[in-house]
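Lecture 7 notes: from sequence to structure.
We start with the chain below.
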Amino acid sequence: MTDTLSREQRSAAMSKIRSRDTAPELLVRRALWSAGLRFRLQARALPGRPDIVLRRWNAVVFVHGCFWHRHEGCPLFRLPATRPEFWEPKLLANQRRDTRAIRELSEAGWRVLVVWECALKWDAEISGVQAVSWVRRQNDSAELLRSGSSIMMRSLPSES
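Predicted structure tokens for the same chain:
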């Protein structure tokens, strides 16, 4: 399938995609801030450059877009029919980079929470409450995602 946009139009559209201060990220930040949790943003010194760093709680939060981070099984992720030879390796590389960053952070003693876009789109308020609860309870690394018609928190798979 060919792209319906010209190269210039596609470039302009792609350049508008933000990597920080995204709507899902702002929802999580607002929930944490309103609960009295203070944090830093985009810590360059840490592996994977987490979106949110809560040093006092020894925790980091990644807010992942389901498409860009290849959230398999999610209704928001679908490999584009246009140029799959480009998208497949790109999205797989993103997924591998995420796995490596989570492993390195865990090895350095950080707790990691991955909040998926699908959870925030399904119910931002419940997702925010669960993120705050995860930080305060000092639970192990986890991910927050949509499962059917509910929001689910599950442990991140251990990577070797």
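Points to note: The two ends are 38 Å apart (CA to CA). The longest helix spans residues 84-107.
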